[in-house]
Amino acid sequence: MSDEIAAAFDGIDPADVPESVDRAALERMRTVAMVLDESIEIPVIEYRIGVDPLLSMLPGVGDALSAGISLYVVIESARLGVSFTTLLGMLARITVDFAGGSIPFVGPAFDAVFKANKWNVEAAMDDLFGDVPEEDDDAVTIPVTTPE
What we know:
2 strands, extended, mainly alpha, two-stranded antiparallel ribbon, 7 helices
């Protein structure tokens, strides 16, 4: 399942993580996000949903439980040293997920599309490791000169 979890996320492979960062914590964060946002594949449309939209079908309790589990990613990110502004963004995504998922009848569909946990893990990894710049081998440099 570890390969499946790593394939679900763009960015840093746990094998490339510096020794100073807790690799097990990153794997736990990825696992929580995978279970809540993308653990179940709908075969007909090839779209992945998680447990979050299923919990959203339980009025009130399901969304609160989902938000509580989502806070684990934020707490683990804070422990790893993610910046305060990134943590605030993560909390905002959980709040939007909770509020949107609480809407009767529409909430489960919202939770199936709004993948706050996956985005939070990616935001934490971007904050910890920075965006990995893509090398563009096809880049062309054109010298610009001005007339004298």
